[in-house]
Design a protein that fits this description.
Largest sheet: none
Helix content: over 70%
Order of helices and strands: HH
Low-confidence stretches: none
Mean pLDDT: 93
Strand content: under 5%
Radius of gyration: 17 Å
Number of domains: 1
């Protein structure tokens, strides 16, 4: 497997942590392979979305600060 970038590693770790949090909150009788896969997919997509949104907002704020000086 190719080396992952720092950002890819962060996204993977956050996705895994989010998945685990969601999985732990599901009652035992509802933990199926399908549900687990859906949660894993959603956790990874959510991690990407949140990090991209954060980066966009962070860069936007930095640009505003730069422009005000």
């Amino acid at each position: 497997m190719a080396n992952m970038t720092v950002l890819e590693e962060i996204i993977k770790e956050i996705g895994s942590e989010l998945y685990q949090k969601w999985y732990n909150s599901v009652p035992e009788d509802q933990k199926t392979e399908e549900a687990s896969k859906a949660m894993a997919d959603n956790a990874n997509e959510t991690a990407i979305f949140v990090i991209q949104a954060f980066m966009y907002k962070f860069n936007e704020a930095a640009d505003e600060l730069k422009d005000s000086n």
